[in-house]
Write a structure and sequence with these properties.
- It is a single chain.
- The chain is of the alpha/beta class.
- It is about 35% helix and about 20% strand.
- The chain has helices at about 15-30, 45, 65-75, 95-105, 125-130, and strands spanning about 5-10, 30-35, 50-55, 85-90, 110, 115-120.
- Helix 1 (about 15-30) packs across helix 5 (about 125-130).
- The protein starts with a strand and ends in a 9-residue tail after the last helix.
Length: about 140
């Protein structure tokens, strides 16, 4: 059974709601899923998975600080060739999703599902998050 980890941070609960729907969709598709808040994710959590799904809201044009720390942990985990995906909510700009995707793709050499899921606050379509969870149908999970 393929295994994935969803690591996320959330300020107002919107990105967390997306994470939970993504988790639900992945489980329905037969993926074993572990979910962690960004502040508790370590390199060892990332090593034995087929996919890393990373979520952060965009805050002041950037991703949350705890998610930046996760990126440092990801660097230690040697994720080259693994599937990666990103998601997050935003109020007006939404840069966090692309920044996470770019780092996973260009720095960690992961097979990143693009585009990431970027959802405007107040327009959350949780069905969209659930269908986004079908990454293993597109990637090598």
């Amino acid at each position: 059974m393929p295994k994935a980890i969803i690591v996320y941070e959330s300020r107002k609960g919107r990105t967390e709601a997306l994470a939970r729907r993504i988790e639900e969709g992945m489980k329905e598709s037969g993926v074993e899923v572990v979910m962690k808040r960004a502040g508790s994710a370590k390199a060892n959590d990332l090593r034995d998975v087929n996919a890393v799904v990373l979520g952060s809201p965009t805050y002041n044009g950037d991703l949350m600080g705890t998610v930046k720390t996760v990126l440092f942990e990801m660097e230690k985990a040697n994720l080259k060739g693994k599937v990666g995906a990103t998601f997050g909510s935003y109020g007006w700009s939404g840069e966090a999703v692309q920044r996470m995707s770019d780092t996973m793709k260009h720095v960690f050499k992961m097979n990143v599902e693009e585009p990431g899921l970027k959802v405007l606050e107040g327009q959350e379509d949780l069905g969209e998050a659930k269908s986004f969870a079908q990454i293993h149908e597109h990637g090598d999970l």
